[in-house]
């Protein structure tokens, strides 16, 4: 009986630890900027993507693999910022489940002001996705425009964690 309880406890802990989001918070870009600043003791990987973007969907398994690899590092955090429309929120939630996304997902509900917030995140960003921005202690340290390979993502993270 004791062994069964131990197994059940381990199962519940593992299930809770790898649980996917069942709800996706929505925010404006000002809230996202504040959120980035709150993670000031970490290397924060912020990936902008959408469920309808083929290169975004293609690179997400690499991001999940790397997120899993670094998840125990207290100085690392990954946030996936969906640029899907607010009316497509349920599709985003289903996508999270179907693709087994374990990093935190946020829906950026600010499409009408894209020309305002895109240059605030990166002056060289032309608006295409996927885009990944790396922040360390709240300051931008790297910017990748376009799809990232697993190797490049990992190399950038390791370089900036030092």
TrEMBL record:
- Gene Ontology MF terms: antioxidant activity; oxidoreductase activity
Tell me where on the tree of life, at the top rank, the source sits. Bacteria
State whether keyword Signal applies: yes
Q: Would I find Signal among this entry's keywords?
A: yes
Which InterPro entries does the record associate with it? AhpC/TSA, Thioredoxin-like_sf, Thioredoxin_CS, Thioredoxin_domain, Thioredoxin_ResA/DsbE_sf
Q: Where is the signal peptide?
A: 1-19
Keywords from UniProt, A to Z, are:
Redox-active center, Signal
* PANTHER family given in the database record: THIOL:DISULFIDE INTERCHANGE PROTEIN DSBE (PTHR42852), THIOREDOXIN-LIKE PROTEIN HI_1115 (PTHR42852:SF17)
- What is this protein called in UniProt? Cytochrome c biogenesis protein tlpA
Name of the coding gene: tlpA
